[in-house]
Design a protein that fits this description.
The complex is a heterodimer of chains A (about 280) and B (about 160).
Chain A (H helix, E strand, L loop, with lengths): L1 H34 L1 H34 L4 H27 L2 H12 L4 E9 L4 E4 L12 E3 L5 E8 L4 E5 L6 E7 L8 E9 L2 E8 L9 E4 L11 E9 L6 E8 L8 E5 L7
Antiparallel strand pairs in A: 1-2, 1-12, 2-5, 3-4, 3-12, 4-5, 6-7, 6-9, 7-8, 8-11, 9-10, 10-11
Chain B lengths: L1 H16 L12 H11 L9 H14 L7 H19 L9 H26 L10 H23 L1 H5 L1
Helix pairs in contact in B: 1-2, 1-3, 2-3, 2-4, 2-6, 3-4, 4-5, 5-6
Classes of the chains: A alpha+beta (about 280), B mainly alpha (about 160).
Chain lengths: ~280, ~160
């Protein structure tokens, strides 16, 4: 009887020992994997790029097809063209407003050295994860480093480089929950002064405007562009449009729902600004 | 090998193709769905397969995210073992894999996985939101559930072939 008891205790101990050895081995394996996380990830992405690009393009075209189908006709394509045209016009308006309000000579110099002086690296979009982090097919081998701003051809801000690997990078979109971008609200009446605020990511490809003083007036349709307060992004990049404001007199600041200008679905190629002087 | 390739294919699919069909910013977690189905339809005698399955599925989930490699692997091992334990406790029916067991088990396991993943991400990176039970969280569960139900009927139809 005693022997049976001892045997069962040993079996229990044996099981516990096996579990502990397994857990330690797993943790050791994960530890080693994390030490080599960068080359491992780079290898997987390098191998996957052709397939991911194919899937991305297939997703874009089928989404566009179903979108067009649902909207009975070529509305989706027309809408996309109009959106692109609108963004170009908004970029021009933004630039003109900036010229009007600021010192002409200073702005000319700024435009000359900044807007035309940007060194851009074009990159293809290959994926997007659940946390609003976009993957592109260019990395440190192409001169990209962390914190660099990412835009599209219409000067719409997408976000900044979060992590860089040898052959690919991950971009934290403006809508990422950890993203905070300093912006200025450009009002339709150019005589009114610009209002400073911040765009905070909400996740799910959405964001909201915050820290607008309660006494300032913002309206649906107002355009948000990057400001030069924080040196993470060049100024006057298009960010979003105000949809609906939320004002509570008990709070010192007002906020607003936004329609972000970037569209991940139509973004096949993006541009990383590699020579913008950053502070973080 | 086929299962590894399938996990890889689904990881790529959910990160690129399904991005264009997101529901409130959420895409179905196809890798988790396949892992859950494989464990759910696994024969009791083959419980030891949970760990390699969790390592492969978790590895692909973590590699195609921007955080550390590991949280998904550990969570899937725990979920797999707990799932098998719950299945063994449930009363045996004529049908070994009834839908009435599948539906609540999937919902609970997926919600727990998502919640624990958020907590682990917060643990590694404090700037990450601790936990957020919002509309997007719910949309992610519903969207994944839709594909899980389709997968369930496919697996059920071919259960014997898959188990062998």
């Amino acid at each position: 009887m005693k022997a049976v008891k001892d045997f069962s205790i040993n079996r229990k101990k044996n099981g516990l020992l096996k579990f502990l050895i397994g857990a330690v081995a797993l943790l050791f394996f994960l530890f080693i994997l994390n030490i080599f996380a960068s080359p491992v990830r780079n290898y997987f992405y390098a191998v996957s790029v052709p397939i991911q690009k194919t899937f991305w393009s297939a997703g874009a075209s089928s989404s566009s097809f179903f979108g067009s189908f649902l909207q009975a006709g070529s509305l989706a394509k027309e809408n996309e063209n109009l959106k692109n045209e609108n963004q170009k016009l908004l970029a021009e308006v933004s630039y003109l407003q900036s010229l009007e309000q600021g010192n002409q000579a200073q702005n000319d110099a700024f435009a000359a050295c900044q807007n035309s002086g940007f060194r851009l690296v074009m990159a293809g979009v290959i994926g997007l994860d659940d946390n609003d982090v976009l993957s592109i097919d260019k990395g440190s081998a192409d001169g990209i480093s962390e914190g660099m701003p990412v835009i599209n051809q219409q000067n719409v801000l997408f976000g900044k480089v979060l992590k860089v690997y040898k052959d690919f990078s991950q971009i934290m979109l403006v809508s990422n929950k950890n993203s905070v971008v300093n912006v200025k609200v450009q009002q339709s009446d150019t005589a009114l002064p610009e209002i400073d605020g911040v765009v905070k990511g909400n996740g799910g490809l959405s964001a909201y405007l915050d820290l607008i003083p309660i006494n300032d007036t913002i309206n649906p349709g107002d355009i948000l562009v990057t400001s030069a307060i924080e040196k993470s992004f060049p100024k006057d990049l298009l960010v979003a449009k105000v949809i609906q404001k939320e004002k509570n007199d008990q709070k010192p600041f007002q906020s607003a729902h936004l329609d972000l200008f970037f569209d991940v679905k139509t973004a096949n190629n993006l541009f990383v600004i590699t020579n913008y002087k950053q502070t973080n | 090998m086929v299962i590894i390739l399938l996990f890889y294919f689904l990881a790529l699919l959910q990160n690129s193709f399904f991005t264009h069909f997101n529901l409130l910013g959420s895409v179905p977690n196809l890798v988790f769905i396949l892992f859950f189905l494989l464990v759910f339809f696994e024969k009791k005698k083959k419980n030891y397969l949970i760990i390699p399955l969790a390592i492969v599925a978790g590895l692909f989930l973590d590699i195609f995210s921007y955080t550390y490699i590991g949280p998904s692997i550990v969570l899937l091992i725990i979920i797999g073992i707990v799932l098998k334990k719950i299945q063994s406790l449930l009363k045996n029916r004529e049908d070994n894999y009834p839908f009435v067991y599948f539906l609540p088990l999937f919902l609970i396991c997926f919600a727990v996985y998502e919640a624990l993943l958020m907590i682990s991400l917060h643990f590694f990176d404090l700037s990450h939101t601790l936990i957020n039970f919002d509309l997007r969280f719910a949309a992610g569960i519903v969207y994944s559930l839709f594909f899980a139900i389709i997968g369930f009927w496919i697996f059920k139809k071919h259960a014997k072939k898959i188990q062998n």
